[in-house]
Design goal:
It is built from nine helices and four strands. The protein is mostly helical. The chain has a domain of 175 residues: Rhomboid-like (Rhomboid-like fold). The strands form two sheets. It has a two-stranded antiparallel ribbon with strand order 1-2. A two-stranded antiparallel sheet has the order 3-4. A hairpin with a 5-residue loop joins β1 and β2. α7 packs parallel to α9.
Length: 272
């Protein structure tokens, strides 16, 4: 309570503090109570069990969500490349979206070196790749992030393009199969904690083993070797990302207040 002195100054009296609202009920203030006790009371008021967490439920709306920017953009670019190739009679597919050995002075060669993963020869070729891409890609983008996944896609496109020009100079390469196999091997590393995941061994034995079999015994126009290269790129990317040193978060500084009061800054950890 504030009292007016004889000198015309306001003086705050602690003894006559009005009991309007208990301090422990103020939001963000803990008055000699443990966090466990406060959470227990909050769970009881919300009607939650011990195994349930206090999370914010997403609201269902009819608004479209661009939930996977890299994967969806890759899909749209591939679809546009296919339409463009059919509209131009295959000219853009051959000169922009199919990599083969060419002159280093040709500026289109460098476009083909990265753009060949967007080109497809037919609708069946496009649908087979995009179906797996749209199923496996978004979870991987959510786990690793859009920028790291984009770097992995660009690196895989560059490696497969260079190896195609060096090892198979008389043939061309197009299609997102290498990117798909990169994502497949990346998904097989889920739950990686330093050892060798059994899921990765099984996927390598089934998918990559089939590609080796097709290279030896099957004669077709499928670039099975580049599928293997894409899988190796995905495995390497997953190991490098998992073993890289993680940045430590700075400790939160607690604000100092009056004796008996402790101000807590609550923070939520995002789990992927």
């Amino acid at each position: 309570m504030f009292n007016l002195t004889e000198h015309g100054e306001w003086l705050y009296s602690r003894a006559e503090r009005p009991a309007e609202k208990p301090v422990e009920n103020l939001p963000g203030v803990c008055y000699n109570k443990s966090v466990k006790t406060k959470l227990k009371g909050l769970r009881q008021r919300c009607g939650l069990r011990k195994d349930e967490t206090l999370t914010k439920r997403p609201k269902l709306t009819l608004q479209l969500q661009y939930n996977s920017p890299v994967i969806l953009t890759f899909f749209l670019l591939s679809l546009g490349a296919l339409f463009l190739g059919q509209w131009t009679g295959g000219w853009t597919t051959k000169h922009l979206f199919c990599v083969y050995r060419g002159s280093l002075k040709d500026p289109l060669f460098y476009i083909r070196l990265f753009g060949h993963v967007l080109g497809h020869g037919s609708w069946d070729h496009f649908l087979n790749n995009m179906l797996l891409l749209l199923v496996i890609g978004p979870p991987m983008e959510e786990k690793y992030g859009s920028i790291p996944l984009l770097k992995g896609i660009v690196l895989t496109a560059l490696v497969t393009g260079v190896l195609q020009c060096v090892l198979f100079p008389r043939t061309g390469l197009l299609g997102a199969s290498g990117i798909v196999f990169m994502l497949i091997m990346l998904a097989s590393l889920s739950g990686f904690s330093g050892g060798i995941p059994v899921t990765m061994l099984l996927v390598a034995a089934l998918y990559l083993g089939q590609q080796i079999y097709d290279i030896i015994f099957v004669r077709d126009n499928v670039a099975n070797f580049m599928h293997i290269v894409g899988g190796i790129c995905g495995t390497g990317f997953g190991y490098v990302y998992a073993l890289r040193p993680k940045k430590r978060k700075p400790a939160a500084h607690k604000a100092s207040g009056k004796p008996g009061l402790k101000f807590e800054k609550t923070s939520r950890r995002k789990s992927r």
